[in-house]
């Protein structure tokens, strides 16, 4: 493949990557305890194996009654019921219940104890109950068979509570082995840095890509294997790449992705693998590459070739990986500035939420200062981003655009 | 304090809790490696100790030139420069540079190698450069002294990259010891559950509160200590509570928070501690309690007394804890339904994002089915929530409301 010569559209690039991910993840799961499943991606649809509650139960501390017995009761006109024990009541009887207890047979409501006076074997009730009042009914929270978690969904704290409530102990979650490789003679790992002056004197840059990507992958509910920083040396890159391909399902490389004299990463990948694409009409993030590698056993591995520029790399990660596994929620909001874009190129623009305050507050979005792909500080402050299609020359102030919430 | 008799407003409750948190967290931090700081809460303002880039550097692979030398150059009208080596150029000279390399003295632009032909000691340039083209200038990404992270902010992957780029290895983050105690005879831990029928036969409920709260606390960037499930037994509750107070800064209890016969938790806390509030005019979440405990050494510990109902407990956690440490982003969006509320009470309503599609797409919010505080499935599906103040009777369709993004 001729590198960076045939730039393809964002749409086509996304299709190539996502189709390959579809194939890869087919059998990549592990079963873990629900207790450890926070932020993981479910690998199965889960349907409720039972109604919840499983029986009618009291939602309050009070007395199980027959609602009709209390009709007309009030502060000034209390009625008297017989207080009994057991698990069944008849007309004009009641049984004391605590929150969560099953409703005795015959009863159809619970009157809160605040509205009652208990005396010996009698109960004075100063409240007119209605049928089902203060009863959590079978299936009220979840109906048997209802889907409570879909394959591909990220598991949140409420899902954990739901799954456990239904007696579900274990869950299949996405399990991908992901290797991270950063290359570049100009890079230095933070552990090896003595002081800031070292950066200036030796013209070095701290390797921020590996830790950033590691954090981004963690946020996606997956865990990366981090390989040691590689110099711009073809042999060294080849060895570490082959090793990483052997140990992982997916590799991310950063740096050496252009076609400069020192861009060995792309050269090595091009030699070893089938390059599926190199160069996408997006900004930032143009020199994105994507390749496939077939092991001797016929297993396919995927390689995401990211820019060494952190913002470009972050955008490439967002568009081609994060959005597959954990798509962002989006909204349509008005712009409070004009923005320009270039025909034939998809622009990814970071924005923040702002309030317009004429008579009533309304939300709008405002672009963060648009600058080079190195400008990390802007991405750290963004609330959302928008993807400006290749056929769009820009938007005018007031136009409503689709934004993805970060 | 008379329990659940003097319900206070959401506003007052929040002030009491947040003021106490302000005092407590004063000295609660630890220093950790930036590499491990994802999702933690920064305990310090961090200002950039240096400009970034620290020196003018090339943003491209190409040739460092004097822009003025190339004025008028084009595909049909190339100009010729002398290709030299070293770290300085004069008029009509150029030096080859790779991305990230320092700009030689005298040069003021980099022309991309795509627009050049290198021949022996000469360079043919087919591009008219402008000053500073393809140069990342000192301080372009970050200016020395600029605040890059504020105390209280949650550290995201981009912050990690920024901090490391600036040579910052360690960071002070919030460090609170948090104990979780759940009580209730009706509860069973998931580990002890044999099968679902056991729940029905023994009228048991799986303890979902502890794992849910544990996950919520993890999402807040803190780590809980989980205590074993406690029966409704006053002595047992007292022992475990005293033990937990000794080992933690903050305790969360769930269950036993009302004033029923089995509500020993609140009784024990009321005996041992100074009860700051019990009962808030909110729905769901009314029986929220908050107490202070003073150790023999004079240290103050805080106790958050949450409902046993998972949704009520989740809302109480959100309003009185999560919002302190990690406030949600909010937006003003129109409602696509009428909603009713009750005067004198603050309602917390879960909503989802919807699209209205007349001529142009717009975003609106729609309430999820409003049901009892036990209905966890609704909270798991919510995109956002709104807080309906105690003076508001409801909203009409089309009104713009403030929503907090989940």
UniProtKB/TrEMBL annotation, chains A, B:
<protein>
    <submittedName>
        <fullName>Molybdenum cofactor synthesis domain</fullName>
    </submittedName>
</protein>
<dbReference type="Pfam" id="PF00994">
    <property type="entry name" value="MoCF_biosynth"/>
</dbReference>
<dbReference type="Pfam" id="PF03453">
    <property type="entry name" value="MoeA_N"/>
</dbReference>
<dbReference type="Pfam" id="PF03454">
    <property type="entry name" value="MoeA_C"/>
</dbReference>
<feature type="domain" description="MoaB/Mog">
    <location>
        <begin position="179"/>
        <end position="327"/>
    </location>
</feature>
<dbReference type="InterPro" id="IPR001453">
    <property type="entry name" value="MoaB/Mog_dom"/>
</dbReference>
<dbReference type="InterPro" id="IPR036425">
    <property type="entry name" value="MoaB/Mog-like_dom_sf"/>
</dbReference>
<dbReference type="InterPro" id="IPR005111">
    <property type="entry name" value="MoeA_C_domain_IV"/>
</dbReference>
<dbReference type="InterPro" id="IPR005110">
    <property type="entry name" value="MoeA_linker/N"/>
</dbReference>
<dbReference type="GO" id="GO:0005737">
    <property type="term" value="C:cytoplasm"/>
</dbReference>
<dbReference type="GO" id="GO:0006777">
    <property type="term" value="P:Mo-molybdopterin cofactor biosynthetic process"/>
</dbReference>
<keyword id="KW-0501">Molybdenum cofactor biosynthesis</keyword>
<dbReference type="GO" id="GO:0061599">
    <property type="term" value="F:molybdopterin molybdotransferase activity"/>
</dbReference>
<comment type="pathway">
    <text>Cofactor biosynthesis; molybdopterin biosynthesis.</text>
</comment>
<dbReference type="InterPro" id="IPR036688">
    <property type="entry name" value="MoeA_C_domain_IV_sf"/>
</dbReference>
<dbReference type="InterPro" id="IPR008284">
    <property type="entry name" value="MoCF_biosynth_CS"/>
</dbReference>
<dbReference type="InterPro" id="IPR036135">
    <property type="entry name" value="MoeA_linker/N_sf"/>
</dbReference>
<dbReference type="InterPro" id="IPR038987">
    <property type="entry name" value="MoeA-like"/>
</dbReference>
């Amino acid at each position: 493949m001729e590198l960076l010569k045939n730039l393809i559209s964002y749409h086509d690039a996304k299709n190539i990557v996502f189709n390959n991910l579809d194939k890869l993840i087919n059998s990549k799961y592990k079963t873990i305890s629900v207790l450890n499943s926070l932020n993981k991606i479910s690998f199965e649809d889960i349907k409720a194996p039972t109604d919840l509650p499983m029986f009618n139960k009291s939602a309050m501390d009070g007395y199980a009654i027959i609602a009709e017995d209390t009709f007309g009761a009030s502060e000034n006109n209390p009625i008297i019921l017989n207080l009994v024990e057991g698990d069944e009541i008849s007309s004009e009887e009641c049984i004391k219940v605590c929150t969560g207890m099953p409703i005795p047979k015959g009863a159809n409501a619970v009157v809160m104890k605040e509205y009652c006076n208990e005396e010996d074997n009698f109960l004075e009730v100063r409240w007119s109950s209605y049928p089902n009042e203060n009863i959590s009914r079978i299936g009220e929270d979840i109906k048997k068979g209802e889907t409570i978690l879909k394959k591909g969904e990220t598991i949140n704290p409420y899902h954990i509570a739901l799954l456990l409530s239904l007696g579900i102990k274990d869950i299949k979650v996405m399990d991908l082995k992901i290797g991270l490789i950063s290359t570049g003679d100009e890079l230095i790992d933070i552990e090896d840095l003595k002081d800031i002056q070292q950066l200036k004197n030796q013209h070095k840059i701290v390797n921020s890509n590996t830790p950033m990507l590691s954090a981004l992958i963690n946020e996606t509910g997956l865990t990366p294997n981090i390989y040691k920083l590689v110099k711009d040396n073809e042999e060294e890159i080849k060895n570490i790449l082959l090793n990483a391909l052997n140990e992982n399902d997916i590799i991310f490389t950063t740096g050496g992705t252009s076609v400069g004299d020192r861009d060995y990463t792309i050269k090595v990948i091009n030699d070893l693998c089938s390059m599926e694409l190199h160069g996408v009409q997006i900004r930032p993030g143009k020199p994105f590459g994507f390749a496939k590698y077939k092991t001797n056993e016929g297993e396919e591995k995927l390689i995401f070739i990211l820019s060494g520029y952190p913002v470009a790399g972050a955008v490439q990660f967002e568009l081609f990986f994060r959005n597959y596994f954990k798509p962002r929620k989006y909204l349509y909001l008005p712009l409070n500035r004009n923005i320009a874009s270039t025909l034939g190129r998809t622009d990814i623009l970071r924005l923040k939420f702002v309030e317009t305050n004429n008579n009533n507050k309304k939300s709008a979005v405002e672009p963060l200062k648009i600058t080079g792909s190195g400008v990390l500080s802007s991405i750290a402050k963004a609330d959302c981003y928008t993807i400006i299609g290749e056929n769009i020359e820009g938007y005018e102030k007031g136009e409503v655009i689709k934004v993805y919430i970060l």
